[in-house]
Amino acid sequence: MVQKNSTSTFEGTIGFIGGGNMAKSLVGGLVSKGFHPSSIFVYDPMPEAMHFMADQFGVRVTDGNDKTISNSSIVVLAVKPQLARSVLKEAGSALQEHRPLLISIAAGVQIKDLDLWSGGGLAIVRVMPNTPALIQRGMTALHPNSRVSKEQLEYAERILSAVGKTVRVPAESDLDAVTALSGSGPAYFFFLIEAMEQAAQDMGIDRDTAHMLATETAVGAGLLAAGSSESAAVLRKRVTSPGGVTEAAFQALENAGVKESWVEAIIAGQRRSIDMSKS
Predict the structure, then answer these.
(1) Are residues 164 and 39 in the same domain?
(2) How many CA atoms lie within 13 A of 128 on its CB side?
(3) What is the model's pLDDT at position 9?
(4) Are strands 2-3 and 14-17 parallel, antiparallel or unpaired?
(5) Domain that holds residue 143
(6) At 144, phi and psi to the nearest 5?
(7) Using N-to-C axis directions, what is the helix angle for 258-278 and 245-255, rounded to 10°?
(8) Does 102 share its domain with 7?
(9) Scanning 78, 187, 199, 227, which has the fewest C-beta atoms within 10 Å of its C-beta?
(10) In a domain, 16, yes or no
(11) What is the pLDDT of residues 44-86, one digit of tens each?
């Protein structure tokens, strides 16, 4: 079930370990939705990231992860996956002392490892957002461990819904499919736009016009699909008149096996996500 919730009724404090692009997006979304900046704490080892957070959003920056954790009922782990182990081990004592809800956006890092590195026994929600969260149009999947209460999971959803929509997945392994589908998904659409722009230019349309035609068509089609109760297949068939231009284009795609190749590509992404999670 996809949900989009307001953050205005949220009570508590949120700490961010890491101040990169996704953290900036989440903080900006929370503040814009009514969450008070004084209830948000951030630490990042890069001074410029700290200055940006304080100047842009008015949040509280700290001098270390321990200070951020001690002030927060919810902690968002917003570091690169390869840094998750060292960061959590260093912050383990503070996490064990204060026992916040831990939300991880570190792609591919399994809950069992997050639990181990943080000292064990914490309520953990692992999430998989995507890059449109940077413009508050993201799609995020969440999976909690058994220690997460119903209220904590709802809080996690409210935080992530500040940058788009959320969906709960019943199994952590489902996040590998989510990673391949919506996590990598923006790149697939950029690739399609790239191909449409190239075709337009090959047909004599100038670059700027080709870009506008391709991107605005993608935006419009996405909004139509999002707002319709009908499947994408039905919407596609409505544009495909027998013997027409669209049918000719799709015949070429079918002859080339594009749909099958695209499905296999996404499944290949899922396999790679599984391998990376295991390693």
Answers:
(1) yes
(2) 27
(3) 44
(4) unpaired
(5) 2-172
(6) -100, 160
(7) 50
(8) yes
(9) 227
(10) yes
(11) 999 999 999 999 999 999 999 999 999 999 999 999 999 999 9
Q: Can you tell me which residue has the tokens 């075709």?
A: 199
- Beta strands (DSSP E) in the chain are 2-3, 14-17, 40-43, 60-61, 74-77, 101-104, 124-128, 138-144, 164-168
- The one-letter amino acid code at 11 reads E
Backbone angles phi, psi at 141, to 5 degrees: -100, 145
Report the C-alpha gap between 76 and 19 in whole angstroms.
10
Report the predicted TM-score, pTM, of the whole model to 2 decimal places.
0.88
CA nearest 91: which of 123, 121, 122, 69? Answer: 69
What is the sign, positive or negative, of the torsion defined by CA atoms of 40, 43, 49, 55?
Answer: positive
d(CA 160, CA 162): 5
Residue 82 belongs to a domain with what CATH number?
3.40.50.720
pLDDT-derived band of residue 12, with 50, 70 and 90 as boundaries? confident
**Residue 257 identity (one-letter amino acid):** G
pLDDT tens for each residue of 159-191: 999 999 999 999 999 999 999 999 999 999 999
Has residue 4 got a pLDDT over 60? no
